[in-house]
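Supplementary Methods S3. Input chains for the assembly prediction are listed below.
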Amino acid sequence: MGKVIVCDGNEAAAWGVALARPDMVAVYPITPQSSLAEYISQFVADGIIKADLMDVEGEHSVLSVLQGAALAGARTFTASCGQGLAFMFEPYFRTPPLRLPIVMSIVTRDGITPQSVWGGQQDAMTVRETGWVHMHCENVQEVLDTVIMAFKIAEHRDVMLPVNVNHDGNYLSYGVEKVEVPDQEEVDVFLGEKNVNWHVALDPERPMGVDPLTGGAGGIGPSLFVKYRKGLCRGMQNALRVIEEVHREWGERFGRKWAPLVEEYRLDGADYAVVTIGSMSGAGKDAVDMARDEEGKRVGLIKMKTFRPFPRKALCEALSKVKAAGVVDRSVSFGWNSGPMYQEILSSMYFLSTPIPAISFIGGLAGADITVDHFRRVIDETQRVLEGGEVASEPIWLNEST
Amino acid sequence: MYEIRFHGRGGQGAVLASKILAKAMVEEGKYVKAIPSFGFERRGAPVAAYLRFADRVIRQTTNIYHPDCVVCLDPTLPRSVDIFEDIKGGGVWVQATKKALDEVQYPALLSRVGFCDAFGIALQVFGRPITNSIMLGSFARTTALVSMDSLVKAMGSVAFRDADLDKNIEAARRGYEESKVYDLRGGMEERA
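Predicted structure tokens for the full assembly:
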């Protein structure tokens, strides 16, 4: 039994990092991630985290430093978001094919321009196609628990991939709740022995070529490159199984059972569902309870925790229980004029025996709130489509007039 | 569920006040969720913070739009911000002011008001107009929803930037002792 504290999501993430006993943390501050970096700095100063803390000159160096550390066998962590993540992009999309199990919190922030320093998932969604695992948290306790689980998932021998633990800027970064901090000894047992560079290392005792020039049109180049790409794809697919296993073990050891890939909420007897991601899900569940218990509406909720790798099977299983869906994104797919989660749910429906009508809602951009009232509208619009109403070709922007 | 909206100016500690009260309500056995509002926070600019507490887990992670209680840390803020916006009938108002109730305007739907000369106390205790700890004491006195013991425990676990813990505890106690509480009839029909 751990200790109970009252803290915000950034502090909770820092406690998760502390319990995972990293060897090296590198950070560069950016709103709304800054206090997470500050908590970690404080923990290092207080001796709670016994890691080398690297205050470097920018996010590109942050991740480059950690790549070297991981190759030398260190357990590593960082956190970033928004423009910081953009500046980090070059080493960011080199990390998965290097198969380095670095864990990074994205304290999600909307993209610019117009200028904005507030929450939104545009940053995380923009980098979703790079081979990092992406998990999104619903509340402060889930942030703490998922940061610890992320190390076990990343370092699993069948995965060996970097993991982003995403929590919504503002609402979770600064949102304060009661959380339980697990005991160090129990987390030590849960995480077990680390071995992060058995496969690729900067080690004088084991000299090897790291990241050699590979590819081209002749010789073994093309097939070797394919081998690397397929390996990365296999690691991602393995992660689906490992994420489930790790969440199951976490639930057994610590008593908190988080849905690993896709959460089904009150889908029994539901005709249609709202699909959510991240911190909006709590208001969504409250709205579903009200619609169901007070108005007799047959609505449920599907929450996506894991967005990369995309949990197509789990999602289709949930979708197969309903006849219409309203998908609420906190970011924009400019290419599809919809939310990115909506776009990918449409793709998944190819594998359903009967595709169902679905509407794209976009809300909560640049710090905007997504309230129970917004979800009442989502529920009403989705019911209208369930009853044969036309599906609009454009998204419904929840904060357009509020 | 009980919902509180804090109003203050940047530097007075409204966000920290919501965090301290969240910790204190957990001491009282409640579930909590506190969220600061966001803008370009800077010294002197109006800021707000929200706190919910309940006997069961709170799921919605959203701002508060219909508070049961408004706590205002600054005597002049009500002139520039509508601190009563969408407050519930029978709501409670806790205000930093040296005025008496008949000297100010307030909506008819309030059921209770607590006034405290937080600026005066702050200048004596801190030498600066930092009013958050004082107004937490005033909140405890006005609402009786939290004990001073819980508040003191909660204050012991946060990092105060501008003064030490003992001074903040002294400030909270004076806020408790030196508040004037007025019982009104507003919102009684709605509540009944």
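The interface with chain A takes residues 15, 18-19, 22-23, 26, 31-36, 38, 58-63, 65, 154, 157 of chain B (CB under 8 Å). Residues 2-185 of chain B form a domain with the Pyruvate-ferredoxin Oxidoreductase; domain 3 fold (CATH 3.40.920.10).
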